[in-house]
Amino acid sequence: MSLYEVRALTKSFDGRTVLDRLDLDVARAEFLCLIGESGTGKSLLSKLLLGLIPTDTGQILFDGEDVTHLKEREWLRVRKRAGVLLQNLGLFDSVNVYQNVAYGLHEQRVMEEGAIQERVSSSLRQVGLPGIEAMMPGELSGGMRKRVALARAIAMRPEVLFYDGPTEGLDPINVARVNRLLLELRDQLGITTIVITHQMETVFGVADRIALIHGGKVALEGTPKMLWKSTNETLQPFLRIARSVVSAPRG
């Protein structure tokens, strides 16, 4: 059974249809990259999958449960099983790294402080930043801030992680570092990973599967190797960039 099953999902704003009867399956522990031109609805799709925006029509199944029309109170239960890493990071600049990473755990109020300290410490180790709990976000580089935000997300031990632009604005060394981390976390924790990105190093170098959003639908999907050879016109601009930065696709 897929973790997500999306059928005929439609969403419009002010008379403009952004997603038009879109179908998509996301397998458990899969690393899926969503690509497409800006404004095609990639981020919108992730918000619909998290219940942050109501659907117009269609159906969303999560772990076999129809969550399409859940009330907000019921969506909170589902969101506890998901983690989100937004492009703007959302770190709280007024508190240190420990308080940032522990934020969600404190909000849940189900763990003792000693257990939270261990969870924060282990999460920072997993992203390659041990012992920086006392540092403030303003003292961190852009790459370090990305990894602290990632540590905060995985500290909640989610079943699925949504990343929106996890490597945008980073230098090539940090792009490679974050990509490696995403794969390691998927492999170590079995997390289903959904990434929205324009970075072709991530798409063709890391993903298990790629879904191209165009015209409100999944216009093309498959493994990096399958899409590497595609003649689909919409995909060609992405392939030209990919071939300039990736020697061979993954999978």
The CATH homologous superfamily of the largest domain is named P-loop containing nucleotide triphosphate hydrolases
How much of the polypeptide forms β-strand, as a percent range?
A: 15-25%
Secondary structure tally, helices:
9
Question: Tally of extended strands?
Answer: 10
What is the helix content? 25-40%
Largest sheet: 6 strands, mixed
CATH topology of the largest domain: Rossmann fold
Any idea what the CATH architecture of the largest domain is?
Answer: 3-Layer(aba) Sandwich
Order of strands, main sheet, comes to 6-7-8-3-9-10
* Helix-strand topology string: EEEHEEHEHHHEHEHEEHH
Mean pLDDT: 91
Q: Span from first to last CA? A: 22 Å
The chain-level structural class is: alpha/beta
Which segments are poorly predicted (pLDDT under 50) over 5 or more consecutive residues? none
* Rg, Cα atoms, Å: 18 Å
Quaternary structure classification? single chain
Large-scale geometry: globular
The level 1 CATH classification of the largest domain is Alpha Beta
- Number of structural units classed as domains: 2
What brief labels describe this structure?
alpha/beta, Rossmann fold, 2 domains, six-stranded mixed beta sheet, four-stranded antiparallel beta sheet, 9 helices
